[in-house]
Specification:
six-stranded mixed β-sheet; 46% helix; 17 helices; Structural Genomics Hypothetical 15.5 Kd Protein In mrcA-pckA Intergenic Region, Chain A; 3 domains; globular; Tyrosyl-Transfer RNA Synthetase; 13 strands; five-stranded mixed β-sheet; alpha/beta; Rossmann fold
Length: 390
């Protein structure tokens, strides 16, 4: 891969590109910093955009340094938050981190990754050092952070601890002598804080490598907050179906960031979509197949595609519908909760009101509709949830 494609494909911004190009041209291994706060254990495919870039750099001989934010996770990254996060315990953070790293190494080469925990340096951080760190940034600099500024101006809670977050993340770069830090565009302020701190301390400032935030199933940025993610640990069929549920508008971006199709083929995909000479569904099938293959296996991707085509293209029922046993006649609302098709009776009623519940293909319109033991009826909720009553 040439430097142009490395630095531009699936990349939002590089600061400073000319400097990074010069470092790459020197041919010396660079230390590539990627930090994560294990506030939650699950990763989604949006995280994989940056991880795929890290893997490409690794294949050129560079060293990834994974920072496990076991201290900053107890604060929670305030970026994009309109309220203070709930504090996590050290035990919760470590448990989340172990699950998170298993997913991280599905993309990034474990053998070429150095794993560092913040507690290595913050565990013995003295008050003198903390005060020195805080004294290197002004309130005006911190209020340039859009999230901080909005919360401050609105009178919402904004703790001094949260103001420290970018400084602590920046100190990570000092501790591991980072050459480049990777992150999403929402991390720009925090990564630039690291660059500023390194310069103040007489170190060569790290370069900044930002990747785009991708849309989720509802068109907003992919986020657990919006429940619109494609989780890396989800089953192949679930992963395949959720990628297929994306809007057609994400197709070019998804091909760019999740596949290795050549640039000339990528340009052809753009052209075909603009002209309407290709069925967007066929392109999404290809993307879904490639995504599932990356996080599971090619065989599981093919099986997930075959099941999807049977169910949604050929309108066949899935081959492996789970069964739910009834002993007495049961109202559809109660069955949906018992069978895991809805989290609560109120959610079950909303699904029925929205027309998303069917029995043997017929739309359910009554909450008290009863199902009987041994009927063999197939209950469908939405496009992908099924259960057979036995």
């Amino acid at each position: 891969m040439d430097f142009d494609e490395l630095l531009h494909r699936g990349v939002a911004e590089v600061i400073v590109e000319a400097e990074l190009r010069q470092r790459l041209a020197e041919g010396k291994p660079l230390r590539l910093k990627q930090g994560f706060d294990p506030t939650r254990p699950e990763m989604h495919i949006g995280h994989a955009v940056g991880l795929r870039k890290l893997r490409q750099f690794q294949e050129l001989g560079h060293q990834v340094v994974l920072i496990v934010g076991d201290w900053t996770a107890q604060i929670g990254d305030p970026s994009g938050r309109d309220e203070t996060r709930t504090r996590l315990s050290a035990e919760e953070v470590r448990a989340n981190a172990e699950i998170f790293m298993e997913q991280f190494f599905r993309v990034v080469d474990r053998q070429r990754t150095e794993v560092r925990w913040q507690s290595e340096w913050f565990g013995t951080f003295r008050l003198e050092q903390a005060l020195d760190l805080a004294g290197r940034f002004t309130l005006a600099q911190m209020l340039a952070h859009e999230t901080f500024r909005k919360r401050y101006e609105s009178g919402a809670g904004l703790t001094i601890l949260e103001l420290m977050y970018p400084m602590l993340q920046g100190y990570d770069s000092v501790a591991i002598k980072a050459d480049v830090e990777f992150g999403g565009t929402d991390q720009k302020f925090n990564i630039l804080a690291g660059r500023e701190l390194m310069a103040q301390l007489g170190m060569t400032p790290q370069q900044v490598f930002l990747v785009p935030l991708i849309p989720g199933t509802d068109g907003r940025k992919m986020s657990k907050t919006f429940l619109n993610t494609v989780d890396i640990r989800s089953a192949p069929s679930e992963m395949f179906g959720r990628v297929m549920s994306m809007t057609d508008g994400v197709i070019p971006l998804y091909f760019e960031v999740f596949t290795d199709v050549p640039l000339d083929e990528l340009a052809e995909i753009h052209r075909a979509l603009a002209e309407g000479s290709v069925n967007p569904r066929d392109l999404k099938l290809r993307i879904a197949r490639e995504v599932v293959a990356q996080f599971h296996s090619p065989d599981e991707a093919r099986a997930a595609e075959e099941a999807f085509v049977r169910q949604f293209v050929q309108r066949e029922l899935p081959a492996d519908i789970p069964e739910h046993q009834l002993a007495v006649p049961t109202a559809i609302v109660d069955l949906m909760v018992a069978a895991g098709l809805a989290a609560s009776k109120s959610e079950a009623r909303r699904l029925i009101d929205g027309g998303g519940v069917r029995i043997d293909g017929a739309r359910v319109e009554r909450y008290d509709l009863a199902l009987h033991p041994g009927a063999g009826a197939v209950v469908q909720v939405g496009r992908r949830k099924f259960v057979r009553v036995v």
